[in-house]
Design goal:
Blueprint (H helix, E strand, L loop, with lengths): L6 H18 L3 H7 L4 H9 L18 H14 L1 H21 L2 H12 L5 E4 L15 E4 L3 E12 L6 E7 L9 E7 L5 E6 L10 E12 L11 H35 L1 E2 L2 E2 L7 H18 L2
Parallel strand pairs: 1-4
Antiparallel strand pairs: 2-3, 3-7, 4-5, 6-7, 8-9
Length: 300
């Protein structure tokens, strides 16, 4: 099997690499220190098709394949993890969720703007008591006939302050437990929807993370995602997101390796680069053996 990249894939990779070097790299440290969301850069990534990479072109997306998504995420992550996280959430969680589970009217109203970068999207699943345990949703959506009333709290929401559209996972029937969970489209500015403080993170600070409060938020009935009830929709979105984040981590690791290798060749000690003074394999193996023996003795 031939694993070589196609000419089209190489062009996409080079376009993402050029954008990362010329647009993301200038000011990346300053943006991270100041916790500045890259609004103008998101707009430019939308113009390049990076905000709706795998979305069908009829909804404003680029219609690319998964390999293209891999390459774009790797190149962005080499330079700016904040930008790559924004792209990942918008693509894997929000655009994917709408394209997979929304009806045609919802796609026309929201997906097109998300895929082109006009809108930014957020995915609201995690709660104080429902992070990894997605079945323990405490946010409720009460059916009031022609609308739902949503109450609850969502934590650690990526792009929580900047987004225009939020996919909110809520419990519509607690007696059904995980089968009573549904997804709703909530727009910024709906009465009762409040954006809490920004998290002061250790890294990826250009991507804003917030707590969100829903206090009797009135959501139209047509904003319920009809494609799937229960945890199928949110877990499907998470499955899509996991490989996007993994590709970003690989890109960041690749840059760490390249930076370390470059430094090892440039850093001169005792008249030669430190890359030229590596331990011999035999000596290294002996050291590892001795360390292991000492660790075993310490646990006896």
């Amino acid at each position: 099997m031939d694993f070589s990249l196609t000419e089209e894939h190489l062009m996409i990779r080079d376009a993402a690499r050029d954008f990362a070097q010329t647009e993301l790299l200038p000011g990346v440290i300053e943006r991270d220190n100041a916790q500045t969301f890259p609004n103008e850069l998101v707009r430019k990534m939308g113009e390049l098709g990076f905000m709706g990479i795998m979305v069908d072109p009829k909804y404003g997306g680029s219609g690319m394949d998964a390999i293209s998504y891999v390459l774009i995420m790797e190149e962005l992550s080499k330079i700016d993890a904040s930008a790559s996280v924004i792209v990942s959430v918008n693509n894997s969680l929000v655009c994917y969720g709408l394209e997979a589970y929304a009806n045609e009217a919802q796609k026309q109203k929201y997906l097109r703007k998300l895929a082109t970068g006009e809108f930014v999207g957020a995915f609201c699943l995690s709660e104080p008591e429902a992070g990894s345990d997605a079945t323990s949703q405490q946010t409720t959506a009460i059916d009031m006939g022609d609308h739902y009333i949503i109450n609850g709290t969502k934590n650690w929401i990526t792009s929580g302050g900047r987004s225009d559209v939020y996919l909110v996972i809520a419990q519509t029937n607690k007696e059904k437990r995980h089968k009573g969970i549904n997804a709703f489209i909530v727009e910024k500015g709906m009465p009762g929807f409040d954006i809490g403080p920004k998290e002061d993170k250790l890294g990826i600070r250009g991507s804003d993370t917030h707590t969100l409060q829903f206090n009797d938020v009135k959501v139209p009935k047509e904003n319920l995602l009809p494609g799937k009830n229960g945890l199928g929709a949110p877990l499907g979105c998470l499955d899509s997101a996991r490989y996007g984040i993994a590709w970003g981590a690989i890109g960041a690791a690749m840059d760490c390796y390249d930076t370390a290798l470059r430094y090892a060749k440039e850093r001169i000690q005792f008249g030669k680069p430190i890359a030229a003074t590596q331990l011999q394999q035999k000596k290294l193996a002996e050291m590892i053996t001795e360390i292991t023996k000492a660790q075993l003795l310490a646990f006896r």
